[in-house]
Amino acid sequence: MNAAYIEAYRSGRLEQSLARASRWMSKCTLCPRMCRVDRMAGETGFCKTGKLAVVASFGPHYGEERPLVGRGGSGAVFFSFCNLSCQFCQNYDISHGGEGSPVGPEQLAEIMLALQKMGCHNINLVTPTHVIQPILQALLFAVAKGLRVPLVYNCGGYERVAALKLLEGIVDIYMPDFKFWDTETARELCGAPDYPSRAREALREMHRQVGELVCDESGVARRGVLVRHLVMPNGLAGTAEIVGFIAARISTRTYVNIMDQYHPCGMAFFNEAINRRITRAEFNQALEAARKAGLTRLDNRPGRWIIDK
Ligand code: SF4
Fold first, then answer.
1. Which atom of ligand 1 is least distant from the CA of 44?
2. What is the DSSP letter of 277?
3. Per the CB 3.0–4.6 Å rule, which of 54, 124, 176, 195 could disulfide with 80?
4. Is the CB of 37 under 6 A from ligand 1?
């Protein structure tokens, strides 16, 4: 199975998507924040990113889900800044502080090619929503120079469906977070009360484009959706509702990673409700809710971060 963007490159669809993304970025509407700033001219909006992507780091990553890691690792590219910016972000210095260096499209293409050369099974674009245009531009160079491995869109779930449509036939694997179910929680923790509805719409669109996760004979992911859900203290994530939605409205065969690694970061130290790790009981409840909802493909890794009590 070839990576989807190869055909998109041949047919001209990749170039068309890039042209449209460039137009949108000159009055930026690439995400639900709809800042309408001219990023092509260097202006910045909520995500503090202008024309060029800022990259914090890149390299083979072995901590991702097994279907992404395989033997060669997942080729992660960590983009700086974020269109969601949660108070508790587990990469706070990168997403809020913007640690990293601006890279041009040819340089970003070279990063992708270097990861492929290192034996990574995929290019894992971490926090890509606000840099869709630079990614598409880099892909044009990278495909021409031989990029072949699947593209993973590893996002926070705060997406515009219209922008996701630019990626149809280009992204092979979508890996969105589904963080909160409740609008007030989303308003308080990331200033985005529309997050839950945007995440639901996004997940439907991603599933429509690429379907359930499909792996090759060695268990390495080639195409499909993989959802991540971080269990929060005090039931703040709305886990039961989220897994219920995925099972009922997407598919019980959706690959879901229920994650236990929440720990206070960034501004979470100043918010009593989220200023602790989760307990084993909270994590077990989350897993039970997922099983009860009927989900049959749960990522199965031992809990490392939970408090035993
Ligand atoms: S991508 Fe950035 S500038 Fe564009 S709408 Fe979203 S937050 Fe605003």
1. 3
2. P
3. 54
4. yes
Q: Tell me whether residue 157 is in a domain.
A: yes
Q: Is 35 in the pocket of ligand 1 (CB under 6 A)?
A: yes
Taking the alpha carbons at both ends of the chain, their separation in whole angstroms is 47
Task: Name the residue at shortest CA distance from atom 3 of ligand 1.
Answer: 45
Our count of domains for the chain comes to 1
CATH number assigned to the domain comprising residue 190:
3.20.20.70
pLDDT in tens, the chain (309 residues): 789 999 999 999 999 999 999 999 999 999 999 999 999 999 999 999 999 999 999 999 999 999 999 999 999 999 999 999 899 998 888 999 889 999 999 999 999 999 999 999 999 999 999 999 999 999 999 999 999 999 999 999 999 999 999 999 999 999 999 999 999 999 999 999 999 999 999 999 999 999 999 999 999 999 999 999 999 999 999 999 999 999 999 999 999 999 999 999 999 999 999 999 999 999 999 999 999 999 999 997 655 555 655
Could you tell me if residue 207 is inside a domain? yes
β strands within the chain, DSSP E: 53-61, 74-79, 101-103, 123-126, 151-155, 173-176, 214-215, 221-230, 255-259, 297-298
**Which range of residues forms the domain containing residue 253?**
4-298
Cα of 290 to ligand 1 centre, how many Å? 33
- Taking the centre of ligand 1 as the mean of its atom positions, its distance from the CA of residue 31, in whole angstroms, is 5
Cα–Cα–Cα angle for 171, 220, 143, nearest 5°?
40
> Which residue CA neighbors atom 6 of ligand 1 most closely?
31
Residue 309, domain member (yes or no): no
Q: Does residue 305 fall inside a structural domain?
A: no
> Measured from the CA of 29, which atom of ligand 1 is nearest?
5
Q: Is 130 in the pocket of ligand 1 (CB under 6 A)?
A: yes
- The closest of 31, 81, 30 to 55, measured between CA atoms, is 81
